Here is the input.
Amino acid sequence: MLYSLLGITKQDINISKKVNPYIRILGFNQKGKYMLSEIARQNPKLEIITSVKKYIENCNNKNLKTMLEKDIWATNVYTLGYEYDSFANLDYTHKLEIGT
Here is the structure.
C-alpha cells in the first residue's frame, strides 16, 4: 500500500539500485559539520543535499531527481497527519537546523 500511496514503481526500485544514493541534510551542529566534511572528503561522488530547491534546479542526473521527488512526495504525505499546520512542500520552505 505504501508503494501505491507514494507512486513507487518497479522502475523506481531498479533506478534506486543503479545510482549512488544521496544524503539529505536536515540539520547539524558543530560535530555534525565536521562529520559531514569528513564524509564528503572520503566519498567525493556522494551527493549531499542541503537545499532541495537548489538541487532540483542544478542536478543533471535524472534518476537522482526522480528519487528526490519521491522523497519530497513522502514528506508531503507524512505531513498530512499533522494535527496542526499541515503544509505541503516543507522540503522547500524549511531551512537547515544549525545548532551549536
In short: Residues 2-98 form one domain. The mean pLDDT is 85. The two ends are 40 Å apart (CA to CA).
